[in-house]
Structure formats: C-alpha cells, structure tokens
Amino acid sequence: MKKLFAVGPDFVLDILVTFPDLANFKKFAMGYSGPFSRHIRIGCKTVSAGRGDELAIDGKESEARELVEQAAAFGADVRIRLGGNGAQEAATLAALGCKVFFLGGYSNKQLLELPPRDLRLFKKVDLSFASVSEMHKSLSVILQAPETNRYILNDGRGRRIRRLAPYLQKLPDALREIAKKYGELDAVGLVGFHGLFATGMRDQDYRLMKAVINKARGTTGALLFTDAGSLAAFTAEQRRLLFKIYSLFDILSVNEDELAQICRAIGVSAKDKLREMSKLLKSSEKLSTIWLHAPHYQASVSTEYGVKLLEKAQTFAAAAGVCRVEKGSYPTIKQINSRAKSRDYPETGKRFVSDVARKYGNKIDGTGLAVTPCYQARGFISSVGAGDTATAAYAFSLVSYAQKSQK
Is the Cα torsion angle 245, 260, 155, 327 positive or negative in sign? Predict the structure, then answer.
C-alpha cells in the first residue's frame, strides 16, 4: 500500500549556473560588472571557502536572467530545475512511489518552464489542495562549480508569508479533507520557513505557525517533520523564533551550520555537535528526533525511535542524497537500494563513526544516538537539492521501517 505524504509550502524555479571549474567562476566574478557585481564576488569567495550562502534580490528577475545569459556566454552550463524545499521533497517522495499532496503555492507559468522530466514528476504529485497564482512566482539563480557549494540569488518577492498566510490558516482543514478522501496520512512535512519569512521574521509569524501546527496536530496523527533551511541571513532573535517553530514538529533536519546557528541563538553550548543536538532536543517543545546530515556522516538523537531503525533511515537518506548529487535527478527506491550496497564510505566518515562509537556508544545524555557514514560521490551534477532529497528519504524510511516493526 502506498505511503501518504503531504508536503509544502514552497515552489521555486531554480536556474542552475555551473561554471566549468572554480577558476572559471572566479574569472567571471572579477569581470562581471552588472547590478550584482559585489555580491557575485562575495559569493565566489564564499564558495571557494567551501561554504554556501543566499542573497535576496526581490523584484530583480530581469537583472538575474541577464546575469544568467552573461554566465552562459562565459561558458557556464545553464539548466532549469524544480526548486523549493517543499516542492523538491514532494517530487522525491513521488519518485519513491508515495501518494503525495502538495500543500503550498505555485505559479502555472513557472511550472511550464520546467524541463519535461521535472514537470512529469511534479505532476505526479496531487496539486488539487495547492494554491495556484502568478503571485507565487519565485526564482533562484544558483551559482556553482563542480564539487563546490553554491551561492543563491533568490527572487522571492519579499515575505511570501503575506501571500500564503490565508492559505496556511486553512491547512488543517485540507489535512482533514485529505484524510476523509484518501485515509490517514503517514507524514506531513512543512519546510522552507527561511524562504517563507525572508529576513522579516517576527513574533506574529511564530504565533501564526504555532496556531496552524497545533490545529494540525488535532486534525491528524501523522508524523510532522521540518527542515531548518538556510539561516545565514537571519539575526539571532529571528533564529530563536524559527527554532520555536521547528520545535513544534516531531522531527527536525539540520546541517552543521544550521545546528551551530540555532544553538548560538538560544544559548545552547556543548563540547561537540552530538551533545549540542541532545541539548537542543531537550530545549524543544515537541521534538522527539533531531537528524544532522553532514558531508561525511549523519547522526540522529531521538527519544522515539530505536538506534537500528535510525541507522537504516540514515543509510537510505545518504544513498538518496548521493544519487541526487551524481545524477541530478530524483532517485527511485531501486536506485537508492542499489547505491546503498556499495559501502564506499569516505575515510573521514568512517573515522568519525568509529570515534563516536568509542566515546558514546548508542546513547548520549540518556537519549538514543545513531551515527552512520555517508557515501563517496562518484560523479557530480549539483549539490543543490541533495539535502531535500535526503530529508524526504529519511522521513519515508523512518515511516516505513517504524510501521514494519509494529507488525
């Protein structure tokens, strides 16, 4: 029987600009004299240092597309892809054979700009509960080179929450209608809050989302999961408010930078990342599980799930993420399981897992701890969307294995 997922709320048109190599990216950044010249140079330095970042360029879509044309003339490979955390996780779950409902807003005009492969897959998602309007237009220009991080210019037309607030307030009603027509959902994912609020996060946004999520809990018994997303542009106070939203869910996905940024914002400190995760879990309102995905390893702390189940979910997620990096597409279960058999783990990941096993075993501060290595990429299309693919795969695996263990 198909798993039932509802995911949203953001849909973005991604324009991937991949330079032949980092040196070529640097030459372009130094020679480009358009409206984003200073930011492109900063972005190139950021990527060169192995980091990623994001810049809001609201209302400058034409300038962004002109930048893309210049990069293409310089030798960059340009491709249009489905973007947005919610839309990409929905597409991943559809590729895994789930029945998926998109809870969010999208633009029909931008939908038709997608390449046929992405369009076919996203149309496998049930869009009947979504909001369709050209007001939902959002575009991201993603600058990168092979095997680097990425720098994103995001034209999201300001705080998307202004347009989506009336829709989100009715979201629990949509969940009730889905359950009535199709049966109880297995999981609900609401992700991309960093894009929803932009840098204008405020107390009333937290109150809105708290009311929506609490009402959703009264509507469905489904697992609720979320992803921290990019937090670099937010102030400490805004990150604190974002974590208050994240803590209303069951599962939170973070990367190393997001973990550090949240911990600093709420005053959590520890001698290593695993203890930070444990303290963060205990500081939350509802969270049962925090999952950390890093380039060479993954780790989960949980009061709900057993270590073996978490390890299986992490292995599945790691294989899904590396498939996305290598192929640039959304993997099937067969492709993920085949990739997981390789066991070509990087030495840094194996060493980290071994060190953690000696230091903590499978418990930390009385909480279950699972740590596993990731896979070594055999090729590179883009790292963009790999986290979203891995997050969706983690949730899918956790739901699937948890249900099997209960039988």
Answer: negative
The structure tokens listed for 265 are: 């914002």
Say which CATH number the domain at 375 has. Answer: 3.40.1190.20
Q: What is the DSSP string of 303-339?
A: SSS-HHHHHHHHHHHHHHHHHHHHHSSPPPHHHHHHH
Closest CA to 233 of 17, 39, 35: 39
By the 8 A CB rule, do 394 and 316 touch? yes
Does residue 105 sit within a domain? yes
The whole domain housing 281 covers 4-11+84-136+158-406
Both structure tokens of 395: 């949730």
Would you state the structure tokens that stand for residue 154, as one six-digit string?
């995001």
Q: Has residue 336 been placed in a domain?
A: yes
Question: How many H helices and E strands in the chain?
Answer: 17, 16
Q: Give pTM, 2 decimals.
A: 0.92
For the chain, the straight-line distance linking the first and the last C-alpha, in angstroms and rounded, comes to: 14
Longest Cα separation, the chain: 63
* Residue 97: both structure tokens together: 């054979």
Contact status, residue 28 vs residue 47, Cβ threshold 8 Å = no
Which pair of tokens denotes residue 117?
Answer: 């492969």
- CA distances in angstroms from 183 to 3, 98, 178, 189, 401, listed in the order given: 10, 13, 7, 17, 20
Beta bridge partners of 227: 253
- Count the alpha carbons within 13 Å of 350 in the hemisphere toward its beta carbon: 7
DSSP output for 83-109? ESHHHHHHHHHHHTT-EEEE-SEE-HH
Question: 262 in a domain, yes or no?
Answer: yes
How many domains would you assign to the chain?
1
CA distance 105 to 12: 10
DSSP string, 151-182: EEEEE--S-THHHHHHHHHTHHHHHHHHHHHH
User: Per the domain annotation, does 378 fall within a domain?
Assistant: yes
Q: For the chain of 407 residues, list the mean pLDDT of each consecutive stretch of 10.
A: 93 94 97 94 93 81 94 96 94 97 93 92 95 87 90 74 89 97 96 82 93 96 92 88 96 94 94 95 96 95 96 97 93 96 92 96 95 92 88 96 63
- 389 and 326 Cβ atoms separated by less than 8 Å: no
CA 189/CA 248 separation, integer angstroms: 12
Rounded to whole angstroms, the Cα distance separating 257 from 230 reads 9
Amino acid sitting at position 269: S
Alpha-carbon distance of 404 to 229, in angstroms, equals: 30
Among 222, 195, 197, CA closest to 207:
197
